[in-house]
Amino acid sequence: MVASEADGTPEDRFAWFCQTVSTEVMPVTLNTRHAADFRAGVTDLDLGTVRLSALSCSPVVSRRTPVHVRRGDPEHLQLALVTRGAVRVSQRGHDSVIAGGLVLTDTSRPSEGACLGEQVESVVLQIPRQALTLRADRVDRLLARDLAADVGSGAIVADFLRTLLRRGPLCSPQELRGMGAVALDLAVVFLAQQLGDPREAPAEARARETVRRIDRFIENNLGDPGLTPRTIADRHHMSLRRLYTLFEDQPLTVSARIRRSRLERAHADLASGAMRGQSVQAIAARWGFSSATGFSRAFREAYGITPTEHRASSQVTPRHE
Fold first, then answer.
1. Residue 43 vs residues 23, 81, 131, 193, 208: alpha-carbon distances, Å
2. Which residue from 200, 254, 301, 314 has the least number of CB within 10 angstroms?
3. Residue 99 near residue 86, CB atoms below 8 Å
4. What are the per-10-residue average pLDDT scores of the chain (321 residues)?
5. Where would I find the H helices in the chain?
6. CA atoms within 13 A on the CB side of 226
Protein backbone atom coordinates (compact mmCIF):
# COMPACT_ATOMS: atom_id res chain seq x y z
CA MET A 1 0.00 0.00 0.00
CA VAL A 2 1.28 3.44 -0.96
CA ALA A 3 -0.13 6.49 0.84
CA SER A 4 1.02 10.05 0.30
CA GLU A 5 -0.18 13.50 1.25
CA ALA A 6 0.84 16.74 -0.36
CA ASP A 7 2.93 19.13 1.72
CA GLY A 8 4.64 22.46 1.12
CA THR A 9 2.75 25.57 0.03
CA PRO A 10 -0.83 25.23 -1.27
CA GLU A 11 0.46 25.89 -4.78
CA ASP A 12 3.01 23.09 -4.36
CA ARG A 13 0.28 20.77 -3.09
CA PHE A 14 -1.91 21.45 -6.11
CA ALA A 15 1.00 20.91 -8.54
CA TRP A 16 1.85 17.65 -6.75
CA PHE A 17 -1.77 16.47 -6.97
CA CYS A 18 -1.98 17.25 -10.70
CA GLN A 19 1.25 15.37 -11.36
CA THR A 20 0.24 12.38 -9.24
CA VAL A 21 -3.16 11.98 -10.87
CA SER A 22 -1.75 12.35 -14.39
CA THR A 23 1.06 9.83 -13.86
CA GLU A 24 -0.51 7.31 -11.46
CA VAL A 25 -4.12 7.32 -12.73
CA MET A 26 -4.38 8.87 -16.22
CA PRO A 27 -3.45 12.09 -18.04
CA VAL A 28 -5.95 14.82 -17.23
CA THR A 29 -6.11 18.60 -16.86
CA LEU A 30 -7.06 19.87 -13.39
CA ASN A 31 -8.04 23.38 -12.33
CA THR A 32 -9.03 24.80 -8.95
CA ARG A 33 -10.19 28.05 -7.37
CA HIS A 34 -8.67 26.91 -4.08
CA ALA A 35 -4.97 27.13 -4.94
CA ALA A 36 -4.43 29.35 -1.89
CA ASP A 37 -5.57 26.68 0.56
CA PHE A 38 -5.41 23.46 -1.46
CA ARG A 39 -5.23 20.11 0.36
CA ALA A 40 -4.91 16.65 -1.14
CA GLY A 41 -3.94 13.04 -0.43
CA VAL A 42 -3.67 9.84 -2.47
CA THR A 43 -3.65 6.20 -1.32
CA ASP A 44 -3.00 3.26 -3.63
CA LEU A 45 -3.50 -0.44 -2.88
CA ASP A 46 -2.29 -3.11 -5.33
CA LEU A 47 -4.82 -5.97 -5.53
CA GLY A 48 -3.34 -7.89 -8.43
CA THR A 49 -5.77 -7.76 -11.34
CA VAL A 50 -7.50 -4.66 -10.00
CA ARG A 51 -6.27 -1.68 -8.02
CA LEU A 52 -7.87 0.38 -5.28
CA SER A 53 -7.19 4.10 -4.99
CA ALA A 54 -8.45 6.64 -2.47
CA LEU A 55 -8.35 10.32 -3.35
CA SER A 56 -8.96 13.30 -1.10
CA CYS A 57 -8.78 16.86 -2.41
CA SER A 58 -10.11 20.39 -2.26
CA PRO A 59 -12.62 21.21 -5.03
CA VAL A 60 -11.16 20.80 -8.51
CA VAL A 61 -12.44 20.67 -12.07
CA SER A 62 -11.10 17.92 -14.34
CA ARG A 63 -11.12 17.55 -18.09
CA ARG A 64 -9.95 14.55 -20.09
CA THR A 65 -9.90 15.18 -23.82
CA PRO A 66 -9.18 12.90 -26.80
CA VAL A 67 -5.63 14.28 -26.68
CA HIS A 68 -5.28 13.07 -23.09
CA VAL A 69 -6.65 9.65 -24.08
CA ARG A 70 -4.10 9.33 -26.88
CA ARG A 71 -1.34 10.45 -24.53
CA GLY A 72 -2.07 7.71 -22.01
CA ASP A 73 -4.88 5.23 -21.55
CA PRO A 74 -4.71 2.44 -18.95
CA GLU A 75 -7.90 1.02 -20.55
CA HIS A 76 -9.63 0.85 -17.19
CA LEU A 77 -13.20 1.11 -16.06
CA GLN A 78 -13.24 3.06 -12.81
CA LEU A 79 -15.93 2.30 -10.25
CA ALA A 80 -15.83 5.16 -7.75
CA LEU A 81 -17.55 5.43 -4.38
CA VAL A 82 -17.95 9.06 -3.27
CA THR A 83 -17.55 9.00 0.52
CA ARG A 84 -17.45 12.74 1.25
CA GLY A 85 -18.76 15.76 -0.61
CA ALA A 86 -20.12 15.40 -4.11
CA VAL A 87 -18.76 14.84 -7.62
CA ARG A 88 -20.24 15.91 -10.92
CA VAL A 89 -19.37 13.56 -13.79
CA SER A 90 -20.03 13.89 -17.52
CA GLN A 91 -19.23 11.19 -20.05
CA ARG A 92 -20.77 9.84 -23.26
CA GLY A 93 -23.73 12.23 -23.06
CA HIS A 94 -24.56 11.39 -19.45
CA ASP A 95 -24.27 13.94 -16.64
CA SER A 96 -24.78 13.16 -12.96
CA VAL A 97 -24.01 14.56 -9.51
CA ILE A 98 -22.90 11.80 -7.14
CA ALA A 99 -23.05 12.21 -3.35
CA GLY A 100 -22.59 9.02 -1.38
CA GLY A 101 -23.20 6.81 -4.39
CA LEU A 102 -21.22 4.88 -6.97
CA VAL A 103 -20.32 6.00 -10.47
CA LEU A 104 -18.66 4.20 -13.39
CA THR A 105 -16.35 5.92 -15.89
CA ASP A 106 -14.16 4.74 -18.78
CA THR A 107 -10.58 5.97 -19.16
CA SER A 108 -10.76 5.34 -22.92
CA ARG A 109 -13.37 8.06 -23.43
CA PRO A 110 -13.24 11.84 -22.92
CA SER A 111 -14.86 13.02 -19.71
CA GLU A 112 -15.38 16.02 -17.46
CA GLY A 113 -15.76 16.18 -13.72
CA ALA A 114 -15.95 18.56 -10.80
CA CYS A 115 -15.44 17.98 -7.09
CA LEU A 116 -18.02 19.91 -5.06
CA GLY A 117 -17.83 20.81 -1.38
CA GLU A 118 -15.06 21.90 0.95
CA GLN A 119 -13.24 18.57 0.74
CA VAL A 120 -14.10 15.63 -1.48
CA GLU A 121 -13.12 12.00 -0.84
CA SER A 122 -13.63 8.94 -3.01
CA VAL A 123 -12.56 5.32 -3.25
CA VAL A 124 -11.91 4.10 -6.78
CA LEU A 125 -11.73 0.48 -7.97
CA GLN A 126 -9.71 0.45 -11.20
CA ILE A 127 -10.73 -2.50 -13.36
CA PRO A 128 -8.97 -3.49 -16.60
CA ARG A 129 -11.67 -3.50 -19.25
CA GLN A 130 -10.78 -7.01 -20.46
CA ALA A 131 -11.19 -8.32 -16.89
CA LEU A 132 -14.80 -7.17 -16.55
CA THR A 133 -16.20 -9.66 -19.12
CA LEU A 134 -19.46 -7.77 -19.55
CA ARG A 135 -20.57 -6.63 -23.00
CA ALA A 136 -18.96 -3.27 -23.71
CA ASP A 137 -22.03 -1.81 -25.44
CA ARG A 138 -24.16 -2.64 -22.41
CA VAL A 139 -21.66 -1.33 -19.87
CA ASP A 140 -21.49 1.97 -21.78
CA ARG A 141 -25.10 2.61 -20.73
CA LEU A 142 -23.97 2.87 -17.11
CA LEU A 143 -21.21 5.44 -17.62
CA ALA A 144 -21.59 8.62 -15.52
CA ARG A 145 -24.81 7.37 -13.93
CA ASP A 146 -25.64 7.78 -10.24
CA LEU A 147 -25.61 4.17 -9.00
CA ALA A 148 -27.11 3.59 -5.56
CA ALA A 149 -24.64 2.47 -2.88
CA ASP A 150 -27.07 2.13 0.02
CA VAL A 151 -29.20 -0.83 -1.07
CA GLY A 152 -28.72 -4.33 -2.49
CA SER A 153 -25.47 -5.27 -4.17
CA GLY A 154 -24.41 -1.60 -4.30
CA ALA A 155 -24.34 -1.47 -0.50
CA ILE A 156 -22.30 -4.69 -0.39
CA VAL A 157 -19.77 -3.28 -2.89
CA ALA A 158 -19.53 0.01 -0.98
CA ASP A 159 -19.01 -1.71 2.39
CA PHE A 160 -16.41 -4.04 0.91
CA LEU A 161 -14.42 -1.17 -0.65
CA ARG A 162 -14.43 0.78 2.62
CA THR A 163 -13.31 -2.26 4.61
CA LEU A 164 -10.66 -3.16 2.05
CA LEU A 165 -9.20 0.33 2.19
CA ARG A 166 -9.12 0.25 5.99
CA ARG A 167 -7.96 -3.33 6.56
CA GLY A 168 -5.99 -3.98 3.36
CA PRO A 169 -2.67 -2.66 4.70
CA LEU A 170 -2.73 -5.44 7.30
CA CYS A 171 -3.00 -8.20 4.66
CA SER A 172 -0.22 -10.09 2.90
CA PRO A 173 0.28 -9.64 -0.87
CA GLN A 174 -1.27 -13.07 -1.47
CA GLU A 175 -4.33 -12.12 0.60
CA LEU A 176 -4.63 -8.83 -1.29
CA ARG A 177 -4.65 -10.66 -4.61
CA GLY A 178 -7.47 -12.83 -3.30
CA MET A 179 -9.35 -9.74 -2.13
CA GLY A 180 -8.85 -8.20 -5.56
CA ALA A 181 -10.52 -11.22 -7.15
CA VAL A 182 -13.44 -10.84 -4.73
CA ALA A 183 -13.72 -7.12 -5.52
CA LEU A 184 -13.83 -7.91 -9.23
CA ASP A 185 -16.51 -10.55 -8.72
CA LEU A 186 -18.63 -8.13 -6.70
CA ALA A 187 -18.24 -5.41 -9.33
CA VAL A 188 -19.38 -7.79 -12.09
CA VAL A 189 -22.47 -8.85 -10.13
CA PHE A 190 -23.31 -5.25 -9.19
CA LEU A 191 -22.97 -3.87 -12.71
CA ALA A 192 -24.92 -6.79 -14.18
CA GLN A 193 -27.69 -6.06 -11.70
CA GLN A 194 -27.70 -2.40 -12.75
CA LEU A 195 -28.22 -3.51 -16.33
CA GLY A 196 -31.54 -5.04 -15.27
CA ASP A 197 -30.74 -8.74 -15.24
CA PRO A 198 -28.08 -10.59 -13.18
CA ARG A 199 -27.82 -12.98 -16.10
CA GLU A 200 -26.29 -10.11 -18.07
CA ALA A 201 -23.03 -11.37 -16.63
CA PRO A 202 -22.31 -13.66 -19.60
CA ALA A 203 -21.57 -17.34 -19.32
CA GLU A 204 -17.84 -16.76 -19.76
CA ALA A 205 -17.88 -14.22 -16.89
CA ARG A 206 -19.62 -16.68 -14.58
CA ALA A 207 -17.19 -19.40 -15.65
CA ARG A 208 -14.19 -17.15 -14.93
CA GLU A 209 -15.62 -16.35 -11.51
CA THR A 210 -15.94 -20.07 -10.76
CA VAL A 211 -12.38 -20.76 -11.95
CA ARG A 212 -11.06 -17.97 -9.69
CA ARG A 213 -12.96 -19.45 -6.76
CA ILE A 214 -11.49 -22.89 -7.50
CA ASP A 215 -7.99 -21.41 -7.81
CA ARG A 216 -8.34 -19.85 -4.36
CA PHE A 217 -9.55 -23.18 -2.97
CA ILE A 218 -6.52 -24.96 -4.46
CA GLU A 219 -4.08 -22.39 -3.05
CA ASN A 220 -5.61 -22.71 0.42
CA ASN A 221 -5.49 -26.53 0.45
CA LEU A 222 -2.20 -27.45 -1.22
CA GLY A 223 -0.97 -29.17 1.95
CA ASP A 224 -3.84 -31.63 1.92
CA PRO A 225 -2.72 -34.86 0.20
CA GLY A 226 -6.38 -35.57 -0.47
CA LEU A 227 -6.71 -32.53 -2.73
CA THR A 228 -7.81 -34.05 -6.05
CA PRO A 229 -10.09 -33.04 -8.93
CA ARG A 230 -12.81 -35.21 -7.39
CA THR A 231 -12.47 -33.39 -4.04
CA ILE A 232 -12.61 -30.01 -5.76
CA ALA A 233 -15.68 -30.99 -7.81
CA ASP A 234 -17.50 -32.29 -4.73
CA ARG A 235 -16.70 -29.18 -2.66
CA HIS A 236 -17.99 -26.93 -5.46
CA HIS A 237 -21.11 -29.01 -6.09
CA MET A 238 -20.34 -29.92 -9.68
CA SER A 239 -19.51 -32.99 -11.70
CA LEU A 240 -15.98 -33.93 -12.68
CA ARG A 241 -16.97 -33.38 -16.31
CA ARG A 242 -18.08 -29.82 -15.50
CA LEU A 243 -14.81 -29.16 -13.65
CA TYR A 244 -12.71 -30.40 -16.56
CA THR A 245 -14.78 -28.31 -18.99
CA LEU A 246 -14.13 -25.17 -16.93
CA PHE A 247 -10.38 -25.72 -17.25
CA GLU A 248 -10.35 -26.53 -20.96
CA ASP A 249 -9.35 -22.95 -21.81
CA GLN A 250 -6.84 -22.66 -18.95
CA PRO A 251 -3.08 -23.10 -19.44
CA LEU A 252 -3.09 -26.16 -17.14
CA THR A 253 -5.49 -28.96 -16.30
CA VAL A 254 -6.78 -29.15 -12.73
CA SER A 255 -4.30 -31.88 -11.76
CA ALA A 256 -1.40 -30.02 -13.39
CA ARG A 257 -2.48 -26.82 -11.63
CA ILE A 258 -2.33 -28.56 -8.25
CA ARG A 259 1.03 -30.21 -9.00
CA ARG A 260 2.65 -27.00 -10.26
CA SER A 261 1.56 -24.97 -7.22
CA ARG A 262 2.81 -27.66 -4.83
CA LEU A 263 6.16 -27.81 -6.62
CA GLU A 264 6.49 -24.03 -6.54
CA ARG A 265 5.91 -23.97 -2.79
CA ALA A 266 8.37 -26.81 -2.19
CA HIS A 267 10.92 -25.17 -4.52
CA ALA A 268 10.73 -21.95 -2.47
CA ASP A 269 10.96 -23.77 0.88
CA LEU A 270 14.01 -25.76 -0.19
CA ALA A 271 15.80 -22.52 -1.06
CA SER A 272 14.79 -20.83 2.18
CA GLY A 273 17.31 -20.59 4.99
CA ALA A 274 14.45 -20.63 7.46
CA MET A 275 13.60 -24.20 6.37
CA ARG A 276 17.11 -25.67 6.67
CA GLY A 277 16.05 -27.67 9.70
CA GLN A 278 13.36 -29.47 7.72
CA SER A 279 14.19 -32.55 5.68
CA VAL A 280 13.37 -32.74 1.99
CA GLN A 281 10.74 -35.36 2.75
CA ALA A 282 9.15 -33.13 5.43
CA ILE A 283 8.92 -30.23 3.00
CA ALA A 284 7.41 -32.49 0.36
CA ALA A 285 4.81 -33.71 2.86
CA ARG A 286 4.09 -30.15 3.91
CA TRP A 287 2.85 -29.43 0.39
CA GLY A 288 0.78 -32.56 -0.06
CA PHE A 289 3.27 -35.01 -1.60
CA SER A 290 2.63 -38.37 0.04
CA SER A 291 5.45 -40.15 -1.83
CA ALA A 292 9.07 -39.01 -1.54
CA THR A 293 9.93 -40.84 -4.75
CA GLY A 294 7.05 -39.28 -6.64
CA PHE A 295 8.00 -35.83 -5.34
CA SER A 296 11.63 -36.22 -6.40
CA ARG A 297 10.62 -37.41 -9.86
CA ALA A 298 8.11 -34.57 -10.37
CA PHE A 299 10.61 -32.00 -9.09
CA ARG A 300 13.34 -33.18 -11.46
CA GLU A 301 10.93 -33.13 -14.41
CA ALA A 302 9.91 -29.56 -13.57
CA TYR A 303 13.30 -28.04 -12.69
CA GLY A 304 15.92 -30.33 -14.21
CA ILE A 305 17.62 -31.10 -10.87
CA THR A 306 16.74 -33.08 -7.77
CA PRO A 307 15.32 -31.41 -4.65
CA THR A 308 18.58 -32.12 -2.80
CA GLU A 309 20.66 -30.54 -5.56
CA HIS A 310 18.41 -27.48 -5.60
CA ARG A 311 18.70 -27.07 -1.84
CA ALA A 312 22.49 -27.41 -1.97
CA SER A 313 22.90 -24.89 -4.79
CA SER A 314 20.55 -22.40 -3.11
CA GLN A 315 22.45 -22.43 0.17
CA VAL A 316 25.95 -21.89 -1.20
CA THR A 317 27.37 -18.72 0.32
CA PRO A 318 28.45 -16.28 -2.45
CA ARG A 319 32.19 -15.51 -2.53
CA HIS A 320 33.19 -11.85 -2.82
CA GLU A 321 36.47 -10.70 -4.23
1. 14, 14, 23, 29, 29
2. 301
3. yes
4. 55 88 91 89 91 93 96 95 96 94 96 91 94 84 94 93 93 89 89 75 68 89 93 90 89 93 94 90 93 93 94 68 36
5. 10-24, 66-71, 129-132, 136-139, 152-167, 173-194, 203-220, 229-235, 240-246, 254-271, 280-286, 292-303, 307-314
6. 4
